[in-house]
Known about the structure:
- The protein is mainly alpha-helical.
- The chain is built from 20 helices and three strands.
- It has helices at 52-67, 71-86, 89-98, 101-113, 120-132, 140-144, 148-158, 163-177, 181-188, 193-203, 207-223, 225-233, 236-246, 250-263, 267-274, 279-286, 292-308, 310-319, 322-332, 336-358; strands at residues 17-21, 24-30, 40-44.
- A three-stranded antiparallel beta sheet has the order 1-2-3, with no helix packed on it.
- α13 (236-246) runs antiparallel to α14 (250-263).
- Mean pLDDT is 82; it is low at 1-28 and 361-375.
- Functions as an E3 ubiquitin ligase.
Amino acid sequence: MVLPWRSRGGRRAERRNLSTSGDTSVVKIKVPAQLRSSKIELVQSPRAPLTPRDAVEICRRLENATAREENAECLEIVSKIKNLARDNGETNKKWLLQYGVVSELTSCFQRFASTRGEHARLLEEVLSVITSWLPLSRTEGFSKMGSTASLNTLVSFLNAPDAKTRQNALFIIREVIAIDKRFVYALTDIEGACEGLIKIIKDSVSTSSTKASIMAIYRIISCDNKTTLKLVNLGLVALIAEMIVNNAEKSVCERCLVVLNVVCDNEQSREDVLGNALIVPLIVKKILRVSDLATQCSVSILWKLWRKNREDVLLEALQVGAFEKLLVVLQVGCEEKTKERASELLRNLNRCRNEMENTNCVDSSMHLKNVKKSF
């Protein structure tokens, strides 16, 4: 009979020595000689999931350390939260979020933001934890990131050399300015905020960063005409045209057209849009090519530009095939506002085309003569 603790050869099997190191159990295993040299290999056993009681204790410790302004202790706790979210991620994250860890993290960020030079590492670590959990519900925690000290720190990180730090700051800025317009005005009053958003796009940090920056710009220009002009002067229109040309991703193109549509609401900004030779051909090209949203925005932009500079826009639009595309838009169906604008554009395009034909100014390559004149 072979006893459980003996090998078939009658020799006692090697027992595993268990030791603990901090929160992690370590198993020492003697590796067979034929597989590897006879060294002791350490194998980490998985940690037990966090309990609600543990989550409450971690939040309480972070709250107390923040109140005492203990930088080292706060950094240790934040690093522990980061590791816990990585191990048994969803379970640990669920309990931490439920017991208010986001509020404590944002409180920590707000407390140390006024002296960011001394606590940069801690602040970067807090941003890293929060952004790794996005999307989150915009609770009271995010409003703390809208304080003057917090926004100044975020803008500082937005212009930092490290790409990851810039991206994390951008994601938080996008969330904060979506809460309340007053955070938009507070942000745009900070030197370097608009420049940082434009630079993120120019540097092509990542696709997700580009999308986040475009959406942050959209929220800003939707609230503040003064900042719209500043962004346009920083080269926003040319940047949008470049992204539409070079970026094949549908969601990026949609966001660009949404921003350009809002830019065209501003009379002074429309001058810059009209001054870009790529805009009208690109807008016409994107009609019916990307999505319903892109088509709606393209028709709206074309209509707004026509209202500002009537004949020149119509002539250019005719040359790149706007007449046929707008006809198809009406045939396939669209929302009422888009339908009204497309119809108005078609009537005026048809008039312009007739005038050009009567004066023999239409190039035969435009292929417009066989289109039924129903307007």
